[in-house]
């Protein structure tokens, strides 16, 4: 059996740095235009979606942090949309575009961090797209190959170490407790693209759809530059019989532009000249 899975996460709809559809109208009828950074993200998003042939995807996997939440630690300062219902509506618009592109694809959703979203807020949205209930972890077979989706993963300086650790944990659980082990472990949360292969198994960390926020730059302006993009996983269980890893992937990545804005106030006024210039190049 062979299945192509479009996997993405960390949309953070509602964030000033996240995905916002153009000409979005909130529940009270107020329009919300895109800041330069949001326009850049949207241009990247539409470029990515348009480059994938229509109807070529079997499954869409949304791997957590679909919305940005209330941002209580920042008193809501990094938000464009402060009401959760508006954030969910914005995410719905984004996902509807994916559904129109791949109308026959099956959908699966994973819970993100509780700081950003809770199941009770997202569950109505998930029911509109998926026959599968929202879960913290999703796992399913593709023939004889097993896939596991989970949002959070450990951090640190090195991208591959937490992913190798996930494979080891999975194998230990299988060996000690007779749990089902998996051939592909998909994680998000860290906003970085990376992978680790171990025999017939691979663990990957998905890129994101959110630009650097103050949380990412609090220790260094270049300390954590997000990878922007999406990954298509092709799972083919026939490769297992040849002793090979049953998973291959194609990543769609976009450079993170450097902002010349010196403060959150400057960015909120649209003075992020790096983002603006990149948008001009995309639209030229």
Classified in CATH, the superfamily is Metallo-dependent phosphatases
Q: Give start-end ranges of low-pLDDT stretches.
A: 261-284
What summary fits the major beta sheet?
5 strands, mixed
Over all CA atoms, what is the radius of gyration?
Answer: 19 Å
- The number of helical runs is 7
Helicity level, as a percent range? 25-40%
Q: Kindly name the structural category.
A: alpha/beta
CATH fold naming: Purple Acid Phosphatase, chain A, domain 2
Total strands: the figure is: 12
Output the CATH class name.
Answer: Alpha Beta
CATH architecture verdict? 4-Layer Sandwich
Proportion in β-strands: 15-25%
What's the overall geometry?
Answer: globular
Distance between the first and last residues' Cα: 42 Å
Strand order, biggest sheet?
A: 5-4-1-11-12
User: What is the succession of H and E elements?
Assistant: EEEHEHEHEEHEEEHEEHH
Describe the protein's architecture and organization.
The strands form 3 sheets. A 5-stranded mixed sheet has the order 5-4-1-11-12, with helices on one face. It has a 5-stranded mixed sheet with strand order 6-7-8-10-9, covered by helices on one side. A two-stranded antiparallel ribbon has the order 2-3. A hairpin with a 2-residue loop joins strand 9 (194-198) and strand 10 (201-205). The protein is α/β, with parallel strands linked by helices and 284 residues long. The protein is built from 7 helices and 12 strands. It has a single domain, classed as Metallo-dependent phosphatases (Purple Acid Phosphatase, chain A, domain 2, 4-Layer Sandwich), CATH 3.60.21.10.
